[in-house]
Specification:
Elements (H helix, E strand, L loop, with lengths): L1 H39 L3 H20 L3 H16 L2 H28 L1 H8 L2 H4 L4 H12 L2 H17 L4 H24 L7 H18 L2 H6 L13 H33 L4 H36 L3 H38 L6 H16 L1 H16 L4 H25 L1 H26 L5 H28 L8 H25 L3 H15 L1
Length: about 525
Amino acid sequence: MKKASADTGRIARSAGTVSIAVMCSRVLGLVREQVFAVMFGAGYAYDAFVVAFRIPNLLRDLFGEGALSSAFVAVFSDYDANKGEKATWRLANNVLVFFAILLSLVTLAGIVFAGPLVRLLVDAEFVQVPGKVELTRTLTIVMFPFLLFISLSAVVMGMLNTKGRFFVPAMASSFFNMGSIVGGVSLAFILPMFGYPAIMGMAFGTLIGGVLQLGCQLPALLRAGFILAPRLDLRDPGLRRIVRLMLPAVIGLSATQINIFINTRFASSCVEGSVSWLNYAFRLVQLPIGVFGVAISIASLPLISRYAAARDVDKMRETCTSSMIMAFCLTIPASFGLWLLSEPIIKIIFEYGAFTALDTARTAEALRFYAVGLFAYSAVKIMVPVFFALNDTRFPVVASFLAVAANLVFVLSFIDAFQHRAIALSTSGAMICNFLFLGIILYRKLAGYSLSHLFEGIGKILLASLVMSAWLKILLFFVRDGFSQSILLQSAGLIVYIASAAAVYGLLLYLLKVKELSLVLDKVRQKLTR
């Protein structure tokens, strides 16, 4: 148990490092969305951009930060632990060359077939708007090479994480956002002088950001011992093992993309602006997913992969349980907070320029329903890599297709009554189904894990979250006119609400003696003491 506590502390320390970097990235991501909101609002141009970016982004989830990243880390960790440094870097070179060639071919195919891909993704309502499909096709062609750079970036991130380097890879997406903002805004003002729409500049900015996300990690990779020695060996057992792990994972992740495809078509059938409202809301909910769920997943994966390579199931079980409780500690109260504060948050962040009060209200509705599934998003991010570490990708595949079925049932049941809100609700419902299925299967795969510890932790977290929500409701009741003041006062008020709610919640968890919180606080205290 002492060893498990040490591992939990190590994950907490690494997750804290990653969280700081991810927080920077997500904040810059919100700034990027603010730029879109001010310049384009919610409607014609931004709808086209969202659909166009979604096409290479769907493939990025499959090849980059999804199947490839998880499969590569599992095999790379095994090589690093058991085969020596020379064999490990030889595998890295082979993987980089193989996927650079493969993804270049996929990118060329995407550019050639951009038109049919766009028409496949949108509804008739979207097609009927003059010029909208052609604009979307052009933006897709510009942004498709993003797939190559971002996928190779994910491979480099996996190498650095396995070597215990978390901060630089987590900061890489900040470079993407900086490139998107600076390059995109500059070109958005320049290109209209030559007859191109301003939104085209933001598309080129996305491409610039992808190049920067890969490039900023290369110095750290060289410092970690990597030497570029390009080679292509299709018979390499390590490469074949990665591909074997990837194939079922790609099938499973394709189910997630089917969900996105279904939701995009339904959103494009709703009133104009629905695609934009959902995208702005999902960008906001990605902040806690990234800062909490993804950070803990990135920190725990190398450790779990190492235990899997050593066949130490007891340590895997303890690490997995503690990681999930840590994620719940942070995401469950975030869900309550987003539900109560969705409208003021969106008003302060986005309601400028072309983004109206109506856009704020509609985006807030979507955000509330996305927040319902926040805990499940983060838990799945932690559980799926455990299956990869165990060389078993069947169950994540099955879970993904169950999620597709659940998503379709929710959408068809609620789309008429709830419109765009139904899509956010169906996304959360599908993810909760995915989480429940994987949780049951993982319990069997790991020969059980401490359910009493897990449920005790969840119970304490829910109790603290309910008390925190009551505190927030009281504050909102007494200062209900605070969000009609100047933007400076509104921002100050929101900071006070969030800080006081976090203090109430943290104090309650401390009094309730949640072990994972105590370990995190101990790490913070040690750093401050030093």
